[in-house]
Amino acid sequence: MTRRNLALVILIPFTVLSLYAVYKVGYVGIFDYHRHSPAGWQVFADLVIACVLILVWLIPEAKKNGINPWPYVVITVFLGSFGPLLYLVVNGAKSTQPNTA
Known about the structure:
The protein contains 4 helices and no strands. It is mostly helical. The chain has one domain (3-92). It starts with a helix and ends in a 10-residue tail after the last helix.
């Protein structure tokens, strides 16, 4: 399975889940849920760290392939994993790295 196909397989159900969550509690409600306990803070901090680490890979990867990374950075800042997943779906086949998946 290619990186692009894997990202698409993840993106579709993740989008459905995210839309359901936003429908039930709203965009702010997703973040509000995590502010009530140290466990929630830890989960949120983990998400931020993971997204930053992914951006450390995504920005140079996109530039190396002649792709503007900033739309994906903005999407990642506001929508988390959607940014990297969309990058892989749209640009996964353009990667200069060998496909090991």
